[in-house]
Automatic annotation (TrEMBL):
Enzyme class name: lyase
Reactions the enzyme catalyzes: 7,8-dihydroneopterin 3'-triphosphate + H2O = 6-carboxy-5,6,7,8-tetrahydropterin + triphosphate + acetaldehyde + 2 H(+)
Cited Gene3D superfamilies: 6-pyruvoyl tetrahydropterin synthase/QueD (3.30.479.10)
Tagged with keyword Metal-binding: yes
Pfam families xrefs: PTPS
SUPFAM superfamilies, sorted: Tetrahydrobiopterin biosynthesis enzymes-like
Organism: Thiohalospira halophila DSM 15071
Keyword Transcription part of the UniProt annotation: no
A GO molecular-function annotation: metal ion binding
Cofactor binding, note field: Binds 1 zinc ion per subunit.
Enzyme Commission code: 4.-.-.-
Protein's name in the database: 6-carboxy-5,6,7,8-tetrahydropterin synthase
UniProt keyword terms in alphabetical order: Lyase, Metal-binding, Queuosine biosynthesis, Zinc
Active site: 26 (proton acceptor), 70 (charge relay system), 115 (charge relay system)
Length: 129
């Protein structure tokens, strides 16, 4: 049996957005306090007995979300061309985090983006066969 450890951190940021071509009030500028849950898998432990230090996951996440905080997402790449839906934001965060954290032992498993307390998207990617 192979051990797998999944670390999860949560952080948040505040940002405005509006949805292009959306038939409803979300096509007007409005804001959310977005919550971000990041799940990271490790296939083993380091010399300290950690999969990945929670602090390292938080630091990598905040490095990205600091650029989104108190901004209008529609003004920022890639959301100046890609609709800033929870789906697209979660996928974007997953890609940016994977570049920072993935290595031979560590994989970003999922990013869950909470748009409100009642609605979230969880983004994952299938491993290539
Ligand atoms: N699958 C998705 N659905 C919706 C998204 C999205 O990103 N992905 N986004 C929105 C809007 O951004 C909107 O701001 C959120 O709307 P809603 O969930 O209706 O938020 P409310 O707080 O108004 O919800 P109530 O629970 O009805 O009060 C819409 N859909
Ligand atoms: Zn919204």
């Amino acid at each position: 049996m192979t051990a797998r450890y999944t670390m999860t951190i949560r952080t948040e940021f505040a940002a405005a957005h509006w949805l292009r071509d959306y038939d409803g009030p979300c096509n007007r500028l409005h804001g959310h306090n977005w919550k971000v849950d990041v799940e990271v898998d490790a296939s083993g432990l380091d010399e300290l007995g950690m999969g990945v230090d929670f602090g390292d996951i938080k630091a990598a996440t905040r490095e990205i979300t600091d650029g989104l905080d108190h901004r209008n997402l529609n003004d920022l790449p890639p959301f100046d061309r890609l609709n800033p839906t929870a789906e697209n934001i979660a996928a974007h965060l997953h890609g940016e985090l994977s570049e920072r954290l993935n290595d031979e032992r560590v994989r970003v498993r999922a990013v869950t983006l909470w748009e409100t307390d009642r609605a979230c998207v969880r983004y994952t990617e299938d491993e290539p066969a």
